[in-house]
Amino acid sequence: MKVVVLGCGGLGHVHADAYTKLVGVELTGVCDLQMDQADKLSEQTGAPAFYSFEQMLANAEFDVISITLPSYLHKEYTLLAAKARKHVICEKPMALSLEDADEMMKCCENNGVRLFIGHVVRFFPEYVSLKQSLDSGAIGRACVAHASRAGSHPGDAKPWYKDRARSGGVIVDLMIHDLDFLRWTLGEVKTVYAMLSQNEQLEYALVTLQFESGAIANVEANWGFPGPFHTKAEIAGNAGVVMANSLKSSSLQIHKHANGTSAPTVAIPESPAFKSPYELEIEHFIRCIRDGSEAIVTAKDAYKALEIAYAALESARTGKPVQL
C-alpha cells in the first residue's frame, strides 16, 4: 500500500516515521509548502519531497494520504483527496465546524474512500486500561469521572493556534481528546456546561458533562501551563476507582522536541511503550483499509466529539448549559 504525508511539521514527522516501520507499506511522498520542511522529512525517510498537493497528486502514486496540516486546512484537503479517490487519515480536530465535518464525511462516502480521524488517545495503553477496568465491572457502575491535560501554549511555536478561528482554541484542539475518550467510555452526553478563561499567555477551560447514564465528568484543559505537558484521568464507580497520571504512571518518561531540533515546537504526547500510540493508530487504520473493518474510532465518533466541543464553546459564551 502506497501512502503520502501532507504537512511536514511535528505530526507529519510522526506519521511518516510510523509508515516507514509498517510492513507492506511504502511512503511515496512528503509534501509541504515550506520547502525546507519537506526536504528535511524527505532526507529522513527517503521519500520524494513535493511542495504542493497538486504537484504530489500529479507525480506520486499513492492509495492513502495522511493530512497533518493545521486544523483550518483539514476540510479543504480532505475534499481534494477524496475527489481524487484517496483514502484519508486526518489529524484531529476533524474540522472547525459541524457543517464542514459533515461535508467531509459525505464527500468521502460519495467517492468510495475511507475517512479516519486521529483521536490517538484511544490507542494510549493507560486510557485503554481505564476503559477495560470499567467494562470488566472491576469498579462497578461509573458515577464520576475527571480528565485533564495541560502544557505550554502551542501558539508560542505556531501563531495560528492563538487564532480561535483557525485552531478552535483549547477546547476544540486539546480538550477534544478527553471529550472523545469520555464519550467512548461513558456513553452519550446529555448536557454540557463550560467555563473558559483566555489571555495572551493562557487559555483554560473547565467543562462539566452529564451523560445519559447519569454519570458526571469534569474535564480540564490548559494551554500556558508552566510545567511539562501532562495528562490525568480517573473514573470512580460504585465499587472502586481507576486512575492514570502521565507524570506518575511510568518510571520511564520521554521529553523531546517534536521535530528533533531545538527550535520552538508544539508538544506531542509520548508513551514509553515499544510501539507509540501513533504507530498503533496508523497501523490500525491501514489494516481497516485493507480488510474493510470498522475502526476503533470512526469519523462519526470524531463528529460527535466535535459536537460536544462546540456545545462547550456555546455554553461558555452564554453561561448556560447546552442540551445535546
Number of helices: 10
Radius of gyration (Å) = 19 Å
Global structural class: alpha/beta
The share of residues in helices is 25-40%
Class of the largest domain, according to the CATH hierarchy? Alpha Beta
Strand neighbour order, sheet with most strands:
12-11-7-10-9-8-13
CATH architecture of the largest domain: 2-Layer Sandwich
Count of beta strands: 13
Name the shape in a single word: globular
Order of helices and strands: EHEHEHEHEHEHEHHEEEEEHHE
Low-confidence stretches: 251-263
Mean pLDDT across all amino acids: 93
CATH superfamily of the largest domain: Dihydrodipicolinate Reductase, domain 2
Q: Distance between termini? A: 40 Å
CATH topology of the largest domain: Dihydrodipicolinate Reductase, domain 2
Strand content: 15-25%
Largest sheet: 7 strands, mixed
Compute the number of structural domains. 2
Structure report:
With 324 residues, the protein is an alpha/beta fold. It folds into 2 domains: 2-119, NAD(P)-binding Rossmann-like Domain (Rossmann fold, 3-Layer(aba) Sandwich), CATH 3.40.50; 121-323, Dihydrodipicolinate Reductase, domain 2 (2-Layer Sandwich), CATH 3.30.360.10. The chain has helices at residues 10-21, 35-45, 53-59, 74-83, 98-110, 125-135, 164-167, 169-186, 277-291, 299-318; strands at 2-6, 26-31, 49-50, 64-67, 87-91, 115-118, 142-151, 189-198, 203-211, 216-223, 230-237, 240-245, 322-323. The protein has a 7-stranded mixed beta sheet. A 6-stranded parallel beta sheet has the order 3-2-1-4-5-6, sandwiched between helices. Helix 4 (74-83) runs parallel beside helix 5 (98-110). The longest helix has 20 residues, at 299-318. The chain starts with a strand and ends with a strand. The model is unreliable at 251-263 (pLDDT under 50).
